[in-house]
Amino acid sequence: MLTFPKTLSEYVLWVNFSKHVVNSDLDFLLGCVYIPPENTKYASPEAFNEIEREMIELSHHGNKVAIVGDFNAKTQVRDDFVEPDDNFIRSLNLDENDELYSYLYDIEKLKLYNVPLRRASQCKAKVNNYGNKLLDFCKQNNMYIANGRIGNDAQIGKTTCSDVSVIDYLLLSSDMFRYTTDFEIKVFDPLISDVHCRLVFSLCKLTDECIYNTECHENRYTKWKSCKEQDFVKHILDDERGNLHRINDKLNELLNKQHDNVTNNEINDIVNSISELFKGSAKQVFGSNNAYRKRRLRCDNKPWFNRECHLNRVEFNKAKALFHKVNNPINKTNLNRASKVYRKTLNKNYRNYQEKLSSELRNTARMDSKKFWNILNKCDGSVKKGNADICITELYEYFKDLNKSVYDDDDFELENPDNSIFDDYLNGEITTDEIKFSLINLKNSKASGIDQILNEYLKSTMDVFLPIYQKIFNLILNTASIPDVWKIGIIKPVYKNKGDPKDPDNYRAITLVSCLGKVFTSVINNRLNKISDEFDLISSAQAGFRKGHSTTDNMFVLYSLISIYFSLGKKLYCTFIDFSKAFDSVWRVGLWKKLQKSNITGKIFNIIYKLYDKTKSCVKNGCEQSDLFNCEIGLKQGENLSPFLFAIYLNDLETYLVEKNVNCLQTIDKLCIDNIGVYLKLFIILYADDTVLFSETPDGLQLALNEFEQYCNTWKLTINSGKTKIVIFSKRKCARTPHFTLCNVELEILEGYTYLGLFFNFSCSFFKARKKIVEQAQKSVFAVYKKLRNISLPVDLQLKIFDSLIMPVLLYSSEIWGFENTNIIEKIHLQFCKYILNVRKSTPNFIVYGELGRYPLDIEIKCRIIVFWHKLITSSKLSSTIYKLMYTLHENGTMLFKWLAYVKDIFSQTGLNYVWYYQSTCSFSKDEIKRLVKSRLKDQFIQKWFDNILNSSRGQTYSILKTKFEQEKYLIKLNTNDRKIMCKFRSCNMHLPIEKGRWLGIPRQERTCTLCNLYIGDEFHYLFICESVLVKCLREKYIPKYYFTYPSQLKMQGLFNIFNVKIYTKLCKFIEKLEKILT
């Protein structure tokens, strides 16, 4: 029931409780802590780091942990959690099923367990350094302070020390709140403690929970197996029933008919035949799954423990049983032999598994984060999220009502004149090149629609089916007869990790549609986007889902406008609009009108209209599937055409505001005319449904809001007034703020707003933005720690994981804020590097960079800024126009802009001034300029790195060991234990007198060896000189004689720089035993 894991830390003792104690699905871990007070000789800056490291190593899944004790940390009522930023997390495009997504939204569990987010505290003492460290510890690890939150101490927060401060805490992971009751801080008792109060809490046992997981595998389609791809294609070609030929013959017959004579049933027959051919071949080649199976969840299963291991274990157990029954030499020999074979088999399979895992993760870390997390979940035994915890009937009724139109004019007959100016291209015959382009860009591992066709089926048989696809697609284009299966969607509800899981409104609807149908709509979408780009069909104020446009463009436009107004001493009034279910509530009749107004008519219009005519959906939750219901409103989430259609739906908003005499940003318009000869009427910028309204005056903004409300009423768009906010950008806080209303609701004026994932403060400082990014990134880092704790991955792969999963979070939108101080960003990078090296937080940064061959993230930030700058000067979008204006004003001295000055400084720093001064004729490509800048910045960093080593007292030995800036081979070649030992020695983390003396402030010449008392006790001394008998014996056993015979710094350099696995392994043994002698 109870076990006591071994601990290496002096500050915590651990107790592991079996899951049966509280009837949980997992064991839980209890830590008992004492951290000595700050500024005492027993204090250590590494105390919290040690506890954190051990907690990560010991907690099986990191979600059921309790830590209690005296932390000597004073926190008052400061937050111990990071409020998840919806806009920022949404900008990362994380899947709701990703464990990282759940980790970032962990705080939502407190709401489920009725635990208040904010705690009470009667602590009167000032927050100390340990207090800040404790709060950071909680934020990073999703731990929460129970004091002042639960039990008899709820909303009280009694003091625990001398009736003045709270320094004793109970910390709980979110899931532990379910099991914790009766938390109480007892009255001070001098018989028990000198100044501390007792913390008392109880653990309750939950009612029986099912520890079985029912998995449903319907015989619909089997998992794709890439190793059998050729067999699958061959089976299609060798189809004995001749289905492929019949499909082709039927298509030829239909193509010879008049288009008006082709019926929808005939189209359905063709598409269904293709589906049946794919399904039949997949079943024959890949096999089929059982429709139903029930298995017991076992978290202790090892993924590398295969049948060979099992058989050898059986033989070992037989030999052991026989030996215990008859103890004789023969049975003993057989037992030893079986034991060796079993152990050898285990080691072999574990080694093979680790190599395969490392290789697989290397291939997926950068390309596919979703697959990466799936692999980690599989190998560490994590249980995949179950189905939606809600009745299928409730989901059915909810989504049925959501898709029901409330408008009376949906039967309005539309005319479709076939006289579009785009007719030649838009409505022409579909070519095989168009289809091939769409097929190549299909993503693997995507779920199928109701026709059960996977993307892998389509891609693998592309050459076979391409002529058939061309015929069927053109037939559909000419007849506007959409197959029925393409108009049916399967809604998979995904919990948003927010709110009550019993409330269907807290589920995101992921609609699965036919993969073959999506290839067709991809071709149509590509045509629409092409004519949109060529003829400027979409307003320049819209950047969402457009080729060559990104969220960074809109963020740059907003930042630039604020900067210009600040330079003029003016304010900028902005409203950040929030639509309520924008995609889901698009009025389709209004959409048809706007498509025709945009000259999208003829065949393409008919196709779009028919795709949404009489569409149906059903809800699927696990093995349950609802009846079909009509979808009468909105756009299909995840469908290829939806982003373009939504852009068209809002495309006339800017024109509408002009017609209603809403004032544009007249200052910007005048500056553009005077400086770059461009007329720029700017009222609004949009990225999908993220909308920002601008004005120079309060009255102007209110007028814009009034007209915007009228526009939304006309086109049946619903505004979420509660989430629509206003920010008045100004150099100083406004003494008196005006009032603004929208839809009869007074809008809240904030000091900042997160737009497209980046927090814009009213003063246009990005300090708070960087802080928010760091908080989210820190949680991402610790989510990765928890996944990697039981997987012995090579250091280079761990770094690749950081670059692939953490860096995108950490450097999100750095093209905009990167000109400001980035020290807090680099702090996270170094924290991760020190963690994987297993070194102290106080380890010199130059050693960390040197051992890993890592460069500061500042170099990557500068390169991102330069790449974005290159995009600005080589395109004609709105952000480029604004940049051109800023550049002109900056260069003629009218205004000064920090962002431009920073870009100019990067070129100056790298000796590329001419690129800045002749940017209008820049001949460098984006990749060339990035490569050139990065190379020069790296060279400069390496020079600075060498200087830091030579100028640091802690770099004297390291300057001998390290002669070249590169990742050390021992980090990859040695096993985990030896790697840690060697790194500890090289990074000044050993308990040598030279280091101990530095901590205690002893002069260098007095830090003599504690064994021989002859010389300074540094690394060189113990390796080659120390006369202690114990050390000499170790030296002769583990170090080649050449090196300690007439030792020199040159020989020491050779020992560490000529990498040899055998020599390094022995050297690690020497270092390990030396440390035991010294401690």
Q: What best-fitting shape do the alpha-carbon axes yield? A: globular
Number of domains: 6
Instruction: Give helix % range.
Output: 40-55%
Q: Mind summarizing the main beta sheet?
A: 6 strands, mixed
| Beta strand % | 5-15%
Radius of gyration over C-alpha positions, nearest whole angstrom? 33 Å
Indicate the low-confidence ranges by residue numbers: 208-221, 290-300
Overall pLDDT level:
86
Quaternary assembly: single chain
Read across the widest sheet, the strand sequence of neighbours is 1-2-3-4-6-5
Query: How many strands appear in the DSSP assignment?
Result: 24
Terminal Cα span: 34 Å
Classification by helices and strands? alpha+beta
Number of helices: 43
Explain what the structure shows.
This protein is α+β, with helices and mostly antiparallel strands and 1079 residues long. It has six domains: 2-81 and 117-212, Deoxyribonuclease I, Chain A (4-Layer Sandwich); 307-379, no CATH class; 392-537 and 598-638, no CATH class; 553-583 and 652-735, Alpha-Beta Plaits (2-Layer Sandwich), CATH 3.30.70; 767-951, no CATH class; 967-1078, no CATH class. 48% of the residues lie in helices and 10% in strands. The strands form seven sheets. It has a six-stranded mixed sheet. A hairpin with a 2-residue loop joins strand 17 and strand 18 (690-695). The longest helix is centred in the N-terminal third of the chain and has 37 residues, at 329-365. The radius of gyration is 33 Å and the shape is globular. Residues 208-221 and 290-300 have low confidence and may be disordered. Keywords: Nucleotidyltransferase, RNA-directed DNA polymerase, Transferase.
